[in-house]
Amino acid sequence: MTDRQDMEYARQGRIAAVVIASAGVLAMLAPWIVARLGLAPKYEILMYLVSMAAFIWSLVVTLRIWQKTRQ
Question: Closest Cα partner for 60 from 21, 8, 16?
Fold first, then answer.
């Protein structure tokens, strides 16, 4: 692997890490945000779905990085 490829994989890994952390924070704060803003419970469920989609996306990205580095 070249240094350029390593830097690209590192950048993708950092993006995935930020998405994972953001999704976790959103999932933990969803009840508080809904209660604080007085929103309907459907918005809390929407926040959970968004965080779940972010977790799945980051899992796919991480698996692709792992597969590329095994070659």
Answer: 16
Residue 14 tokens, joined: 């950092």
Count Cβ atoms within 10 A of the Cβ of residue 22 and give its class: 0-12 exposed, 13-18 middle, 19 or more buried: middle
CA distance to 32, 35, 70, per residue, from 13 (Å): 29, 34, 15
| Cα-based angle 60, 4, 66 (whole degrees, multiple of 5) | 25
pLDDT, tens digit (0-9, with 9 covering 90-100), for 55-64: 999 999 999 9
- CA dist 43 and 49 (Å) reads 10
